Amino acid sequence: MMSESRLVTVAVDAVGGDNAPSQILEGVRLAVAEDASLRVLLTGPAEVVEPFAATLPANVEAIPSTEVIGMEEHPANAVRAKKDSSIVVGCQLVRDGRAQAFFSAGSTGAAMAAATLVMGRIRGVQRPAIATVVPTSGPPCVMLDVGANADCRPEHLLQFAVMGAAYASVVLGVIGPRVALLNIGEEPTKGSQLAQEAYALMAARTPNFIGNIEGRDVLTGAADVIVTDGFTGNVALKLLEGTSRVLLSQVKDAITGTPLAKTAAAVLKPALSRLSERLDPDTYGGAPLLGVNGICIIGHGSSGARAVSNAIRVAAQAGRGGLTQQIATSIAEN
């Protein structure tokens, strides 16, 4: 992983998400306080971005925009119609080389559409994919696609493997990441026709391919990169998020249900806090859209300041590590 001493610029959508602009601005403030070599280009209405940038003149520059894409708008149509929206302007900053990365907690569809239409795809990439970092019993792993492509072909999954391995290497610092295909059995002949054909391609062309893993193995740390289609990946991700929330809620109820349990909870609190941190999606920042010609990190609509700060940190790390270039090289070689 690259040192934070290397200057990097991240464009940030100030008005995207349920908690914008207050939590976005606070997340920017946290991010630049933690990384002196980080510069933020803040896009959004002048009355929002200019007063805030004036408080952090060395690290934050206001890039006023006059339009906002709402969550309810058709993503591609809105991107084409609102050329001066905060999301489109942010992607233009990356396209034009003024920033190395872009972050938004606004409309996922609009961020995907803008990144694809404005930044363009990396040469040779057939389908950009959304990745996410998943906590495991060991180091976290990367899973993709988790929603960009409901219908896929085997060659798409092969490219997802290549892009996911690059992300694991640059952002998570994994050397020679182990790549697995999510399936309903371990044998090469298991699963749908898509899974079987993808297995054959990945076995022949993906470095460190370890074969199929089942859903029960996702959280065991068996693989560093888990590849699947966007439909399956999104269902798996939402199931994991829901399960973690329920489990943490049940644990909380159990340790606060009686006076004796509350006494024990005081002893367990540090360990439980660390567990909660590991399971919290905010810990890992936003989800990268891999395959576009620039770094695009998409945050949860409900992102608070901590999530925004972590997403900007991930964007900066990917920029310093040359993620886009590494994916382009890997795709060309594959």
Could you describe the 3D structure shown?
The protein is α/β, with parallel strands linked by helices and about 325 residues long. The protein has two domains: about 1-125 and about 290-325, 3-Layer(aba) Sandwich (Isopropylmalate Dehydrogenase); about 130-280, Isopropylmalate Dehydrogenase (3-Layer(aba) Sandwich). The chain is about 45% helix and about 15% strand. It has eleven helices and eleven strands. The protein has helices at about 20-35, 45-55, 75-80, 85-95, 110-120, 155-170, 195-205, 230-255, 260-280, 305-320, 325-334, and strands at about 10-15, 40-45, 60-65, 100-105, 130-135, 140-145, 180, 210-215, 225, 285-290, 295-300. It has an eleven-stranded mixed sheet, sandwiched between helices. The longest helix has 27 residues, at about 230-255. The model has no long low-confidence stretch (mean pLDDT about 90).
List the helices and strands and how they pair.
Elements: E1 8-13, H1 22-34, E2 38-44, H2 46-55, E3 60-64, H3 75-81, H4 86-95, E4 101-104, H5 108-119, E5 129-134, E6 141-144, H6 154-170, E7 179-182, H7 193-205, E8 209-213, E9 225-227, H8 230-256, H9 259-279, E10 287-290, E11 295-298, H10 305-320, H11 323-333
Parallel strand pairs: 1-2, 1-4, 2-3, 4-11, 6-9, 7-8, 7-9
Antiparallel strand pairs: 5-6, 5-10, 10-11
Helix pairs in contact: 1-10, 3-5, 4-5, 6-7, 6-11, 8-9
